[in-house]
């Protein structure tokens, strides 16, 4: 009982002595848990259920005490801690920037996405032929037609203003001027929406509003194929920011690996400094071999890791 009391007292002393750097890691780790859990929940179907939202909130609350406990168990010197944090962030950024197929490295925040029929000939009917989520294009100049389909979007996910019905062909259609469709997905998304629209029995002018930016499409009513539209426009700055955010989220989890390793090396260094002269010489010899091996293995391992992320296999698959 006395031992438990001493352990509890030591824990609370370390908790009170936590510095701003420690609280920064707690917030960083909480952000990482929320971001990666959201990615896992949304990446499959781009729908965030109430159960998944509750799970994310619960994990966010649990991640703070977990991070505090982790820091107290693996308390290191401030300089080593800063070094490990920077190394974790660097490795996370390395993963997102040099792995083109890392799915969490591309995302966008959709605030509103709406289609509205502005003008139409008498008797014309505008149809939403197909709606689907697509992977983010790898090239900035990719055409919408080349966006790779990931998953269909149900008509039930649209908020309908005006008279909308299911046509004989099974499409969502309206013959009413100023009728509109709003996609109820106002949150972060790891795929982009593509809507395929067409007009029948006449011409129509349709406005597409995506995050406050409006584009206009003229449908002539004679094309057999639907016109694919997407409010997404490639932005180099947005792409870089998305990769940085995803990389920092991955780095926040990698700290769980680097911090115990740093604590282990700190203990070995302290043990080496307090060793006897004979033992110290033997340890020094072993440490030299360890440093030599690490100096050779670390760059090779890093090179092979980068090659694997780029899908380049120098020794075959």
Question: Could you explain how this protein is built, in words?
Answer:
The chain is of the alpha+beta class and 317 residues long. The chain is built from six helices and 13 strands. The mean pLDDT is 80.
Topology:
Blueprint: H1 2-16, H2 20-45, H3 50-73, H4 78-98, E1 108-109, E2 113-120, E3 125-134, E4 149-152, E5 158-161, E6 165-166, E7 172-174, E8 180-183, E9 188-189, E10 192-200, E11 204-210, E12 213-219, E13 227-229, H5 236-273, H6 277-309
Antiparallel strand pairs: 1-9, 2-8, 2-11, 3-4, 3-7, 3-10, 5-8, 6-7, 10-13, 11-12
Radius of gyration from CA coordinates: 28 Å
Listing every helix as H and every strand as E from the N terminus to the C terminus, the arrangement reads HHHHEEEEEEEEEEEEEHH
Strand content of the residues, in percent?
15-25%
Structural class by sheet pairing and helices: alpha+beta
Uncertain spans, ≥5 residues at pLDDT below 50?
none
The major pleated sheet works out as: 6 strands, antiparallel
Helix proportion range: 40-55%
* Total count of strands: 13
Q: How far apart lie the N and C ends?
A: 57 Å
Shape: elongated
Mean pLDDT: 80
Number of helices: 6
Structure described in brief:
This protein is an alpha+beta fold and 317 residues long. It has 6 helices and 13 strands. A hairpin with a 2-residue loop joins strand 11 and strand 12 (213-219).
List keywords for this structure.
317 residues, 21% strand, five-stranded antiparallel beta sheet
